[in-house]
Design a protein that fits this description.
By secondary structure, this protein is α/β, with parallel strands linked by helices. The protein is built from 12 helices and 16 strands. The protein folds into 3 domains: 280 residues, 4-Layer Sandwich (Purple Acid Phosphatase, chain A, domain 2), CATH 3.60.21.10; 63 residues; 76 residues, no CATH class. The strands form 3 sheets. Strands 6-5-7-8-9-11-10 form a 7-stranded mixed sheet. It comes from Paraburkholderia polaris.
């Protein structure tokens, strides 16, 4: 049996373009490949949606399109993404086949392309006998999101995390007994749930390890499901054991900056005792990273920005701390205003300053300064002179002396002074001898 599993669609006004592009592709590809059943394992919406929201209309259109080609099972996801009751409307959107909403812990058999649910958490003996007599195509074990707040009220907040794992383990073992009978009868068994497996890896590369996660791999394999289809984690990953397989398809699109790996949906081949899955990649957003060994090149960024619409972009550079202010972050943000997301990562290189060898052994400040000048190959006399000036005079006197010196410099730079300086460079005039002045005493000097 071919089963198309999509998960974490996250339809919302903010994600509409990405969600609808990727899910529309997934539905069309699943129909083209001849899938027998469609499964959506939680978080079809990103948050509460108004009835008139375009995102809700787009999601309903694709669910109706899928249901026109195959039976569809939709699982209740995280309550913050899918408030209780959100999926009830989708049960009315069936076409040639039904849309079944799994919003409680139960088992569901697909008989003659119709869904037959159990009255309780699992098929009891008489129900199981009736189902087997109808030769079901597949039986689903549905485990929607558990409300941890309600569990905390009943068992106490301190025990809620560990108690949840124990409760779920108990259910999975009980379901495993029923599924073992079904598998022995040649009926494929499929688990569907939404939660975190201890030891899985998130879309950001973080391993989830701790006592507050819903499932362990051991517990899921104990359910005796040929295929266990999970949602909630946005990264594709799987575990196998003796013909059984547990898998996350990841989110159908790339909704957050930094999500690793390909995005897509899973096309399953499930038979009693054997299950295999294939990740079919959807046309999700790209993530582009550009690195600079120094300040960013604005021309290169402008060229990249022209082709970065609807992409996630990360710009990284390294620069010393004394020049960090030359990078105009606002200008870079303006360039990538049409990108789906922009992250600026600056690595600031600290300036390393070493102490002058032997400076601490000098007694006076004058000697410390002279020692530093010696090591730095700097002239010491002007600096020591100014240091003594700072020590002996008050600030006002120092300021007046500086201003007076500046005034003198300005005066000597005047044009008249320049002319005088040029004249002084000429040879000095010679004094006339006494004999050369006799003409001054001539009687006819002032004669008429």
């Amino acid at each position: 049996m071919k089963i198309a599993q999509c998960s974490d669609l996250h339809y919302s006004p903010e994600n509409l373009a990405e969600s609808d592009r990727c899910f529309t592709f997934a539905v069309g590809d699943a129909i083209r490949r001849g899938a027998d059943v469609g499964v959506i394992s939680g978080d079809s919406t990103d948050h509460r949606l108004d009835a008139h929201a375009p995102a809700l209309n787009a999601l309903a259109t694709q669910i109706h399109r899928m249901a026109d080609a195959m039976p569809v099972l939709m699982l209740q996801g995280t309550f913050s993404h899918e408030p209780p009751g959100t999926l009830d409307n989708f049960a009315l959107m069936g076409a040639s086949f039904d849309v079944f909403v799994a919003d409680r812990v139960q088992q569901v058999a697909l008989v003659n392309r119709k869904f037959v649910p159990s009255a309780g958490p699992v098929f009891e003996a008489d129900e199981l006998e009736s189902v087997l007599s109808q030769q079901p195509e597949v039986v689903f074990t549905c485990l929607p999101t558990i409300h941890k707040g309600q569990l905390a009220i009943s068992v106490g907040a301190a025990d809620a995390s560990t108690e949840l794992a124990e409760v779920l383990m108990g259910f999975l073992v009980r379901a495993g007994k029923v599924n073992a009978v079904l598998r022995a009868a040649g009926v494929p068994t499929v688990g569907v749930s939404h939660g975190t497996v201890n030891g899985c890896t998130t879309e950001h590369g973080v391993m989830m390890a701790g006592f507050d996660h819903e499932f362990s791999v051991t517990a899921l394999f104990a359910a005796q499901c040929d295929a266990f289809m999970l949602g909630h984690i946005h990264k594709y990953q799987f575990w196998t054991l003796a013909g059984q397989q547990i898998a996350y398809p990841g989110s159908v699109g790339r909704f957050h900056y930094g999500e690793e790996g390909d995005k897509g949906y899973l096309m399953w081949q499930v038979a009693a005792g054997d299950a295999q899955s294939e990740l079919v990649v959807t046309p999700s957003r790209e993530m582009v990273t550009i690195d600079f060994d120094g300040p960013p090149d604005m021309e290169q960024l402008a060229e990249l920005a022209n082709s970065s619409a609807d992409r996630f972009v990360r710009v990284r550079w390294q620069i010393d701390e004394e020049h960090r202010q030359i990078v105009d972050r606002s200008a870079i943000e303006a360039l990538f205003s049409k990108a789906a997301g922009l992250k600026l990562d600056a690595r600031i290189l600290p300036v390393m300053r070493s102490r002058a060898e032997g400076i601490s052994q000098e007694v006076t400040v004058d000697r410390k300064l002279a020692r530093w000048c010696e090591l730095a190959n700097v002239g010491a006399e002007p600096l020591i002179e100014r240091l003594q000036l700072l020590a002996m005079d008050d600030p006002e006197a120092i300021a007046e002396a500086v201003l007076a010196r500046l005034s003198n410099v300005e005066a000597t730079s005047a044009p008249a002074v320049v002319s005088l300086i040029q004249a002084s460079r000429e040879a000095p005039p010679t004094v006339a001898a006494a004999d050369d002045l006799d003409w001054l005493s001539g009687g006819d000097l002032f004669a008429a």
